[in-house]
C-alpha cells in the first residue's frame, strides 16, 4: 500500500521533496498556507502532484504517514504539535533527500559565513573537475537534485531549523563554523538549545566521517566536550597552532591533515579576518577529500565573493564602493567593519532587530569617518553614534544615501553598505537593497 507523504510548505525545498516523494512511490500531497510561486505551481501540476494553497486541510494532513516540513514553519505551530501528539514522523527536506542518495555530502552550518563557505567549497570541488551539486539553504533544492541523481558530491548549506528535523542524516564531512546568538525566539531564548541544534550535524557520523569545527569558538568548545560524536574531529584555529587540524598566523594558513599545505593569506580573494577563517574551513575539508594542493590554492585566490557579501562594486573618483547588504545583524556588520583597511563612510540602517550597537563602537571610532543612515527610523543609530563620528546624516532613499556617501568620501576612502539591520522598511529584501546600491553607484 502506498504511504501518504505530506509536504508542508511549497517553496524550493517543499516542491523538491514532493518531486522526490513522487519518484519514490509515495502518495504525495503538498499544502501551503500562503500562495505558491507560478513556477512551483506549474512544476507540481506537470508532475501530477496534488496540492493546496491558502489553507491547511488538517484532516488530510493529520492522516499522513510521513511529513516533510518547511524550515520556515515554527516547531510550536499548533498543527505541528498535533502531528507530534499523533506520533507522525516530521522530517526536513535535507533528511528526506539524504535517504535516497549514496553521494558524499559536505554539510556546512554556523551562525555566520555558511553561504560564503559553501559557495567556496563548491568552487574548489568544481575546479578539481568533480561532479558536485550545491544546495540546502542556498541554490537548488537538495531533494530535487537527488531526483535527477547526477551528482557524486553535494555541498549543503544547512540552517539550525533544517537540522532540528533530521533523524539519520549523516554527512561525510560536517563543518561547524561558529555559534553566535541568532533566531533565539525559536529556541526559548536559550543559546544552549540553539547550539545543540547546530551540533545535530555530527550526531549520526561514524569513525569514517569527519567533523571540522572552529577551535576558537567558546560555544563550540563547551559543547564538544559533552557530545559523543564518533567522527574524526578536525579543528581549525585563527589563534592556536593545532597539529591535527588547520591554523592561521599573520601570513599563512597551514593545513596539517592529512597532508601539509601552506596557503599565503595575502593571495586570498576574500578579505577580512572572518573570511580567512571561512577559507580555512573550506580548504581543510578539501584537503580531507584529497583535492590537489594547486587546485586548493588557485580556488582560494580566484574565488569571486558571494553577491551582497563584501562585494566590491566599483571605484569612482578613487573611492571604492562595497556592497555588504547581506549583513542583516550587528555581528555581520562587525566583521565587515573589521575588514576595512581605509577610512570608511558607513551606510547603515533598516528594520532594527533589537540591535545593540555598543560592540561596534571601538571599530567605528577607529575606522569610520562618516555615517549615512538609511532607514525609516534611524533614532537608535543616531543615539549610539552622535558625538562619536563627526559626520552623521539621515537619508531614506538609496540614491540619497549613495550620493551623500560619495560627497563625504575622498580618494583612497571606502564606502561600505553594511546595514546591520533587516531591509523591509524600504526594500523588498536584502538582494533588492544591494541591487539598488549597485545601480546608484554606477549612476554616479
Automatic annotation (TrEMBL):
Keyword field contains Oxidoreductase: no
One annotated GO molecular function: UDP-N-acetylmuramoylalanine-D-glutamate ligase activity
Pathway: Cell wall biogenesis; peptidoglycan biosynthesis
Broad class of the protein's primary localization: cytoplasm
Record-linked Pfam families: Mur_ligase_C, Mur_ligase_M, MurD_N
Catalytic activity: UDP-N-acetyl-alpha-D-muramoyl-L-alanine + D-glutamate + ATP = UDP-N-acetyl-alpha-D-muramoyl-L-alanyl-D-glutamate + ADP + phosphate + H(+)
Compartments, record wording: Cytoplasm
Residue span(s) of domain Mur ligase C-terminal: 308-421
Domain annotation Mur ligase central: ranges: 108-286
Chain sites annotated for binding ATP: 110-116
EC number: 6.3.2.9
UniProt keyword list: ATP-binding, Cell cycle, Cell division, Cell shape, Cell wall biogenesis/degradation, Cytoplasm, Ligase, Nucleotide-binding, Peptidoglycan synthesis
Ranges in a coiled coil: none
The keyword Glycosyltransferase belongs to this UniProt entry's keyword annotation: no
PANTHER family (UniProt xref): UDP-N-ACETYLMURAMOYLALANINE--D-GLUTAMATE LIGASE
Function of the protein: Cell wall formation. Catalyzes the addition of glutamate to the nucleotide precursor UDP-N-acetylmuramoyl-L-alanine (UMA).
Matching NCBIfam families: murD
Protein name: UDP-N-acetylmuramoylalanine--D-glutamate ligase
Source species: Moheibacter stercoris
